[in-house]
C-alpha cells in the first residue's frame, strides 16, 4: 500500500505471510523519510524593463518543497554598484537609492519548515534616460554688439541627476 509522508516521518512496513495450513510469519522494517530542501520552479527575476531609478522594481520567483509544505519566501535587494542593502520586500522603490547604470540584485530565499533553504538571484541595470532640453536662452534677449551675452539652458532630467552642461559659440 502507499501513503504520503513528509520529511523526518518514520515509516513502517509489516509484511505477513500465511501458508495453506494456517502458519503465519511477519516481519517489520522501518525507515525515516529524508527531508529535502526547497527548489525553485521559477527562478528569481526583476520585472519592469526598462528599469528607471524613479520606479518600483519587482522581484518574483517561486519555490516548492517535495516534503509537501510550501516554503516561506524572503527577499533581499542590494545595490551592487554602491555596495548597499536596499530592502527586504518583493517590491523595492528605487527613488533615492539607485542611480542610472547602477547594478541591482534581488535574492529570494526559500525556507521550508525544517529550515532547509534554497536561493535564487537576479540582477538588472538601472536604465539611463537622456535629459530633455526645454529651452536655450540668450541674455539679453536682443543683444547689440556692445553687450556681454550669456547663454543658458533649461532642461528636464528625469533621473534626478545633474547633467554637465557645455556651451559652444559660433558665428
DSSP strand tally: 11
- Terminal residue distance: 95 Å
Mean pLDDT metric: 91
Enumerate the spans where pLDDT stays under 50 for 5 or more consecutive residues. none
What kind of sheet is the major sheet?
A: 4 strands, antiparallel
The gross shape turns out to be rod-shaped
* Helical residues, percent: under 10%
Hey, roughly how much beta strand do the residues contain? over 45%
* Secondary structure tally, helices: 0
**Helix-strand pattern:** EEEEEEEEEEE
Query: Measured on Cα atoms, how large is the radius of gyration?
Result: 32 Å
Decide which structural class fits the backbone: mainly beta
Numbering strands along the chain, what is their spatial order in the largest sheet? 6-5-8-9
Give a quick precis of the structure.
By secondary structure, the protein is mostly beta strands. The protein contains no helices and 11 strands.
Amino acid at each position: 500500500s502507499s501513503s504520503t509522508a513528509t520529511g523526518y516521518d518514520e515509516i513502517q512496513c509489516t509484511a505477513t505471510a500465511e501458508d495453506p495450513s494456517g502458519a503465519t510469519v511477519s516481519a517489520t522494517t522501518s525507515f525515516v523519510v529524508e527531508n529535502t530542501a526547497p527548489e525553485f520552479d521559477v527562478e528569481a527575476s526583476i520585472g519592469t524593463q526598462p528599469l528607471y531609478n524613479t520606479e518600483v522594481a519587482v522581484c518574483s520567483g517561486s519555490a516548492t518543497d517535495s516534503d509537501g509544505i510550501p516554503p516561506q519566501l524572503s527577499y533581499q535587494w542590494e545595490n551592487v554598484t554602491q555596495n548597499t542593502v536596499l530592502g527586504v520586500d518583493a517590491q523595492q522603490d528605487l527613488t533615492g537609492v539607485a542611480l542610472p547604470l547602477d547594478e541591482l540584485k534581488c535574492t529570494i530565499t526559500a525556507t521550508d519548515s525544517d529550515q532547509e533553504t534554497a536561493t535564487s538571484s537576479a540582477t538588472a541595470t538601472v536604465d539611463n534616460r537622456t535629459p530633455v532640453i526645454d529651452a536655450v536662452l540668450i541674455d539679453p534677449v536682443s543683444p547689440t554688439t556692445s553687450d556681454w551675452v550669456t547663454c543658458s539652458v533649461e532642461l528636464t532630467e528625469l533621473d534626478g541627476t545633474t547633467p554637465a552642461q557645455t556651451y559652444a559659440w559660433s558665428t
